[in-house]
Each structure stands twice: as C-alpha cells, then as structure tokens.
Design goal:
mainly alpha; about 100 residues; single chain
Length: about 100
C-alpha cells in the first residue's frame, strides 16, 4: 500500500471500515482528482499528483478521521487552512449531509 491504492482498493478499504461509496461518490472523487491535477499545474497545491498516491495519501488518509468520529451524527465541519481541500472535501464526499 505504500505506493498508493487504485480505485478498487480505495473502495474496498473504505467498505471494510463501514463506508460504502455510491457510483456518484466515486465519480466525485474522480472529478476531484482531475481538478486537483489541473489546478496543481497553475499553483503549487501538492507534490503528490500520481493517481494511486492521491487516492491513498490525500483521499484515504483524509477519510481516516471517520474511523474515529461518527460523521453520521455530525452536521457541520470546519476545516481551517484546507488549501487543496484536505481533509474536508473527501469527508464531505463520503458524508454529503455535512455543511463544510
């Protein structure tokens, strides 16, 4: 896993933790990835842009907060200094009811 994870590994690893993603949510992560890489060419948002690394080190790592906090019982999330949107946007994709 050190070199990243593909979308299937991402999905199954989250499912093992009780977080099931719909096709729409997976599309949102794909769009997020494409926009991250596109905007990273214009401004330095992250040094991590290889897809498998982004899915592990940005998306999955951001969502690990949900392994310890029940975001189903939370309604708002404040992410101070999110920069490229980590961890708030991956959490918001997984828990769309949140107000970020």
């Amino acid at each position: 896993k050190d070199d990243g994870m593909n979308i299937e590994e991402f999905t199954s690893s989250l499912a093992e933790k009780g977080i099931s993603l719909s096709d729409r949510q997976l599309e949102q992560f794909e769009l997020y990835y494409r926009m991250l890489v596109e905007w990273n060419e214009k401004m330095n948002l992250t040094s991590i842009t290889e897809k498998k690394e982004v899915y592990l080190k940005h998306f999955y790592d951001s969502i690990t907060a949900a392994f310890y906090i029940d975001f189903e019982k939370v309604t708002t999330l404040c992410d101070v200094g999110a920069g490229a949107g980590f961890p708030s946007l991956p959490i918001k994709i997984c828990f769309p009811h949140l107000h970020v």
